[in-house]
Amino acid sequence: MKKYTYNDWLNNKIDYRIPGGQNIVEADNGLHILLIENRLSKDDYKKISEAQEKAYDRAVERTVECHSRVFEDRYKKANNKKEFLNCEIQDCESKINENLIIKKQVLLGNKQYSTIRGDQYLKIMNDNSGYSFYGYSDNMRITAYYRYLQWLQNYTGQDEVKTFLPLPDCFKDKGYLYRSILNDPRVTECYEKLNEGAYRWTKSKRKLGGLAQRLLDRGKLIDDIKSNQDLARIFCPFFNLKYDSKEEKSFQPEEVKKYRDYYSYIQ
Fold first, then answer.
1. How far apart are the C-alpha atoms of 6 and 55, rounded to whole Å?
2. pLDDT tens digit string along 77-97?
3. Which of 21, 212, 231, 260 is surrounded by the fewest CB atoms within 10 Å?
4. End-to-end CA separation in angstroms for the chain
5. d(CA 34, CA 13)
6. Does residue 31 contact residue 23 with C-beta atoms inside 8 Å?
7. pLDDT tens across 201-240, in order?
8. Which residues contact 169 (CB under 8 A, 6 or more apart)?
């Protein structure tokens, strides 16, 4: 039987049909079956899975950004802004509740990306149109709606004092922190909300340092932020953590490397 590689997946050259003629192209375990049959190496399987997850995360992020942008454009034109916001929240909730099984998966932080094909990966990673991505899985769609809902629930409107909950000024796009970081299950498990929109980090300070370092590496922060101590000076107060104002050791490069890699999905 033919063996496949990462490049075969990327170029849509994998024949997912198994002996007997059954087509498993839409099955979640399609590539896993090829792995079990020794038709796909462990290294290639891992490489494909990592690429699929990266595409999933980016597609969700872009979809939330699209929803948010469209909503804000319409919100400005609404005669009754409060009622318009409430209607959008209810509409979003109804979409999430259409499939409670998928909703529970999303609430548990489970992501289904194993059916993303190579052409879909390339489209997601290379697309700069600003449009949303829907058709790849119900899990992806509901995850995007769930994060968008959380964004809506904390939206106060352009005409009021604040557009979002208080955010650190270090972000080039302040909304990005809330849309794509504070709503990610791998981050929400690390903090708790306090009164008046404040946050408290509940995991290790090194893990927060890793998150901050990853955001810096990916160009999400303003150019004035250059050092690890700058990151500590901004992120620790925001998450109500005490820190050494002269040299916060838990934010130093050798300390945060492990956790920076944990947040490698941030692109």
1. 15
2. 888 888 999 999 999 999 999
3. 21
4. 37
5. 13
6. no
7. 999 999 999 998 888 888 888 887 878 888 888 888 888 8
8. 222, 234
Looking at beta carbons, which pairs linking 174-182 to residues 24 or more positions away fall under 8 Å?
A: 175/68, 175/151, 176/220, 178/150, 178/151, 178/154, 179/61, 179/64, 179/65, 179/68, 179/147, 179/148, 179/151, 180/61, 180/64, 180/65, 180/147, 180/266, 181/211, 181/215, 181/266
Distance from C-alpha of 8 to C-alpha of 21, rounded to nearest angstrom: 20
| Amino acid letter, residue 47 | K
How far is the C-alpha of 200 from the C-alpha of 152, rounded, in Å?
A: 22
Task: Choose among 250, 166, 172, 155: nearest CA to 208.
Answer: 250
Which DSSP letter does residue 97 get? T
Q: What is the pTM of this model?
A: 0.58
Tell me which residue of 124, 112, 135, 139 sits closest to 10, measured CA to CA: 124
Boundaries of every domain in the chain: 170-267
Looking at residue 150, its amino acid is Q
How many Cβ atoms sit within 10 Å of the Cβ of residue 181?
A: 19
Residue with tokens 């949303």: 132
Q: How many residues in the chain? A: 267
User: Phi, psi (5° rounding) for residue 18?
Assistant: -105, 165
Take residue 195 and report the two structure tokens written for it. 């009164």
